[in-house]
Write a structure and sequence with these properties.
The structure holds 3 protein chains of 3 kinds. Chain A is an alpha+beta fold. Helix content of chain A is 32%, strand content 19%. Chain B has one domain: Ribosomal Protein S5, domain 2. Chain B has a 5-stranded mixed β-sheet. A 4-stranded antiparallel β-sheet of chain B has the order 7-6-8-9, with helices on both faces. Classes of the chains: A alpha+beta, B alpha+beta, C alpha+beta. Chain C: GO terms for molecular function: mRNA 3'-UTR AU-rich region binding.
């Protein structure tokens, strides 16, 4: 558990911070000219970039580009079937016909078809078969909103994958209602690696292969990709994205921003948020959320509020804000909180490792405090940027 | 990648025993092969035949003296699979190229058949093939359509990509695709050593040891270069320009052979049509 | 690749301008855009560099990791290239969309570095047949505004220049088992000699002339381009024709000459910046993406 060396006798942390102190935050908006919105943030040694494209048509760039991309790989008829590509080839064929009409695109089938080969080791494997044994769905179902149940077994749609995916996006509904309905905090205890995946992961493995759900008739689709540069971590990563963790984080990012962006203003359109960790030193996800907030603002997309994210941990009884990478590695409890500071709503709350319930309050308070402090910093960055832009426009 | 559990999977990488033999102090075995220095401008004998597959719309087979054998098939205009993509192609059709090595193509186990590295190499060769052929084909005449070429390397005896380019151009022409010209490919390499000269159409052993390699493709009637692809150490300052000249000259000399084979194929087809009529 | 759609009139305007040696942004045919180069931007790499050439933005990180030498070359280390076309550059690259371009660029980089003299690989071998340094050169494409290949090669050279590989000693005990000891002093490291590292010069044929460092708009007007990698001494290490058009043999020779000339001055300018940055040492203020 929380190692004592996290906090020295004098009450300082390994990097010289006080328990509630944040690392130095530096940020800049409008880093790139071609993107609709972009931002860069440094939190201590963690550096992240976020880029926003959109709102644009759902069948827009991403989809058409894929159509363009796929063909150069030799045409399907010429290719021998047993290649691993075979698994993804059929969806292409299926995906293409829907042509420009938005609502038709990304039929659920191809996704299901491409999902299974990538996910053999997942426990919910038996769940995937449409006529799966009735036994396992029960514990799963209880964890989800009732809306899920029709999708699970016995639906004509073969992939429960998509079914669950839609459910994933549904909770977004809690956010978009303009009346401040207190968002149900999603406390998901994701256990330490190696044990059974937490409920968060029971759904399909998020595949960031573009927008797979149809264009939503009443709100914008938020599409996220989380990637880490191969050189960002101490040990070189083999690929920047596409692994389990990146997919999960992208899904969380999507949920976070669906709660914050006024998606109802842009029905049938899509907003792409791409985050990239350039240097990882703890709190990667938080830095990405903060950068993405700035990028969304830079793109001029209306949001309910800033989304500020910060992590918190515990050293014995003292809550620590904004964990650095060694502190994360120490194995203590870690709380990740994404907060809409003005309304005090929680967009995402995640706790890893065990924590006594009485201490949760303290950790949550520390994380909340850190988020509010970050809010002040981000707000300053935004205002400064606005002044700059206004000055430029004024001339 | 689907695992084949019924077989013992060999190691991911394998090496020819020569690597170890050479390290053990044994004499350089391949040295004797080129005991007689060959004329750098000499072309290897080339055999080309068009229209030999009945299922494909167009086909060609090219064999080089050193043992390189390439079989190519082409399919004429088909409706593009992706309507969106076809519209994006600004009216012109698209040329899809494929390049595959037969599992038995290489002599040494250079790349494990089916390995990721081999697929990568094949994809790169396919892209090179497409770049070499695109300028020769009148793609603007096939809006919203796709043309497909598939090259199968049966045996790699050096200069494989160049042979594939020639064969693919023949196959396209044999399929009746409108073209500006045939694309003729020619490979060169320069053996290591400061004074070594570029050689046309290297064999497999020469190619492996080469310090620099170059593949060029020419549309001889138009005198347009459709592909240049090469790398390595071309030590004298204007070595690459020389190599290019030599290679283009080689392409010009190969052109009549390819044309002949095309004419012969057309004649054969006419004769066949006459007998059935 | 990200591309722009131009009308015929716009294309004509660009082509006519190039004919007069005056490009839309005021450059001549052999001028590069203003490039920003900064090294040592990512601290947990062995070497890194960021290059911004017009709107093209490239970040390169070099990581040195211990590996085993390749069997064909037991006394040499090796380089591994990986290019990540991130979705930051364009939404087309989302998911696996950028992979194709990424491998194309990586293959080109392998070919560019295929010349044995480009980098002294023997110096990064620790002990033959057993241990060597593997330099993972990871290119991250953040924004593409034309002339990707040149910008990437500049960034790769800058990152290799910036690379510091820790010195190691091989200790051998009586039983012949070897132990590798890493030097404690972080300043005790190997630097790579990048004098012979080539840079790519892409020459795009527009109309009857060719231009270097084409913008996206100019790339849209060009049917074929020739990619040449040139060392600082003007030696060519690789050539490749790109695009769907073809080139006249004579113009290829001209382009090669131009490439050599431009490449030489590019190397000189780059080396000057790198040396300047080096001389500032730790006093240099890091700008990164905040500038």
């Amino acid at each position: 558990m929380a190692a004592p060396e996290l906090l020295s006798d004098e009450g300082y942390r390994a990097d010289g911070r006080r328990p509630a102190e944040l690392r130095k935050v530096r940020a800049r908006m409008g880093v790139f000219a071609q993107a609709d919105g972009s931002a860069y943030i440094e939190q201590g040694n963690t550096k992240a970039l976020a880029v926003v494209y959109g709102p644009h048509e759902v069948s827009g760039a991403g989809h058409r580009a894929r159509g363009l991309r796929s063909p150069p790989s030799p045409s399907a008829p010429l290719r021998a079937p047993p290649l691993p590509l075979g698994a993804s080839a059929p969806p292409r064929g299926l995906r293409s016909p829907p042509s420009p009409s938005a609502p038709l695109r990304a039929p659920p089938l191809p996704l299901g078809a491409s999902a299974p080969p990538r996910a053999p080791p997942l426990p919910p494997g038996p769940l995937r078969s449409p006529s799966g044994p009735p036994l396992p769905p029960e514990p799963l179902r209880s964890l989800h909103p009732p809306g899920l149940s029709p999708f699970v077994p016995g639906t004509p749609r073969p992939p429960p994958a998509t079914g669950a995916a839609e459910v994933r996006s549904l909770p977004g509904g809690r956010g978009p209602s303009p009346v401040p309905v207190p968002a149900p905090p999603r406390v998901c205890t994701s256990p330490p690696p190696g044990s059974v995946p937490a409920p968060v992961c029971t759904g399909p493995r998020p595949q960031m292969r573009g927008s797979r759900s149809k264009a939503l008739p009443d709100r914008a689709l938020v599409n996220c990709q989380y990637s880490m540069a191969t050189f960002s971590t101490g040990e070189r990563r083999r690929r920047p994205h596409g692994d389990r963790q990146a997919g999960e984080l992208a899904l969380q990012l999507k949920q976070t921003f669906e709660a914050a962006i006024l998606t109802r203003l842009y029905p049938r359109s899509q907003i792409d948020i791409y985050v990239q960790v350039l240097q990882a030193d703890g709190g990667n996800y938080c830095a990405c959320v903060n950068a993405a907030t700035l990028a969304v603002m830079d793109a001029g997309i209306p949001m309910r509020d800033y989304v500020c994210a910060s992590s918190a941990g515990l050293a014995e009884d003292t809550p620590l804000a904004d964990l650095s990478s060694p502190e994360e590695a120490a194995g203590g409890p870690r709380l990740v909180l994404a907060l809409l500071p003005a309304s005090g709503q929680i967009a995402l709350l995640q706790l890893s490792a065990r924590l006594h319930q009485e201490r949760l309050e303290a950790a949550l308070e520390a994380a909340g405090e850190a988020c509010r402090a970050l809010h002040a910093v981000l707000d300053r960055v935004v205002r400064e940027r606005l002044r700059e832009v206004a000055a430029l426009l004024g001339d | 990648m689907p695992l084949d559990h019924r077989r013992v999977r060999g190691p991911e990488e394998s090496q020819p025993p020569e690597v170890w033999a050479a390290a053990g102090g044994a004499g350089e075995v391949p040295e004797e092969e080129d005991a007689a220095p060959r004329d750098p401008c000499a072309l290897r004998p080339l055999f080309a035949r068009a229209g030999l597959l009945s299922q494909a719309e167009g086909s060609a087979y090219v064999e080089l003296g050193g043992g390189t054998k390439v079989l190519c098939a082409a399919w004429g205009p088909r409706e593009a699979a992706e309507p969106g993509a076809a519209a994006a192609a600004a009216g012109g059709g698209r040329l899809l190229c494929e390049f595959r090595r037969a599992p038995f193509a290489g002599r040494g186990a250079r790349l494990r058949p089916g390995s990721a590295a081999e697929r990568e190499a094949e994809r790169e060769a396919a892209a090179a093939l497409r770049e070499a052929l695109e300028p020769a084909v009148r793609l603007a005449r096939y809006p919203r359509a796709r043309l497909a070429v598939s090259a199968l390397l049966l045996q790699d005896g050096g200069s494989a990509l160049a042979a594939a380019i020639s064969a693919a151009a023949l196959a396209l022409a044999d399929a009746g695709v409108e073209m500006y010209d045939l694309a003729v490919g020619c490979a060169l390499c320069r053996p290591p050593g400061p004074a070594a000269a570029w050689m046309l159409q290297p064999g497999e052993a020469e190619e492996r040891r080469a310090a620099a390699r170059l593949t060029v493709a020419l549309l001889p009637a138009l005198n347009q270069v459709s592909a240049v692809l090469g790398g390595g150490q071309g030590s004298p300052p204007d070595a690459w320009a020389q190599a290019l000249r030599l290679g283009l000259d080689g392409c010009h000399r190969l052109y009549p052979v390819l044309r002949q084979s095309l004419l012969r194929a057309a004649r054969r087809r006419d004769a066949a049509a006459a007998t059935t009529a | 690749m990200a591309s722009v759609v131009l009308s015929e009139a716009e294309k004509l305007y660009i082509v006519h301008g190039v004919q007069e040696d005056l490009r839309i942004d005021g450059r001549g045919c052999e001028d590069y855009r203003c490039a920003e180069v900064e090294t040592d931007v990512v601290s947990n790499t062995s070497g890194s560099a960021r290059v911004k050439l017009g709107h093209t933005d490239i970040l390169v990180g070099v990581k040195a990791e211990m590996g085993t030498p390749k069997l064909e070359k037991p006394d040499e280390g090796y380089l591994e290239f990986f290019v990540d076309c991130s979705a930051n550059a364009t939404p087309e690259f989302e998911g696996r969309g950028g992979e194709e371009l990424g491998t194309e660029i990586a293959n080109t980089l392998y070919r560019v570095f295929s010349s044995e003299s480009s980098i002294d690989l023997k110096s990064i071998c620790i002990n033959p047949r057993e241990h060597c340094w593997v330099l993972y050169v990871d290119v991250l494409l953040l924004e593409c505004g034309g002339n990707l290949f040149d910008a990437i090669s500049i960034a790769v050279k800058a990152a290799l220049f910036n690379t510091r590989i820790p010195k190691v000693r091989v200790l051998e005990d009586e039983e012949g088992s070897k132990e590798i000891e890493l030097s404690d002093d972080p300043y005790d490291c190997i630097r790579l000699n990048v004098d012979d590292v080539p840079c790519i010069v892409t020459l795009s044929k527009i109309g009857y002339r060719h231009v270097v460092d084409a913008t996206l708009q100019e790339e849209a007007c060009s049917l074929a381009s020739l990619l040449i990698s040139v060392t600082s001494k003007g030696a060519i290490t690789s050539m490749k024709k790109m695009g769907k058009g073809s080139l006249d043999p004579e113009s290829i020779f001209e382009m090669m000459e131009t490439g050599k000339r431009v490449g030489k001055s590019l190397h000189i300018a780059l080396q000057k910046i790198l040396d300047e940055e080096e001389s500032l040492g730790t006093s240099r203020q890091k700008v990164g993406f905040l500038g």
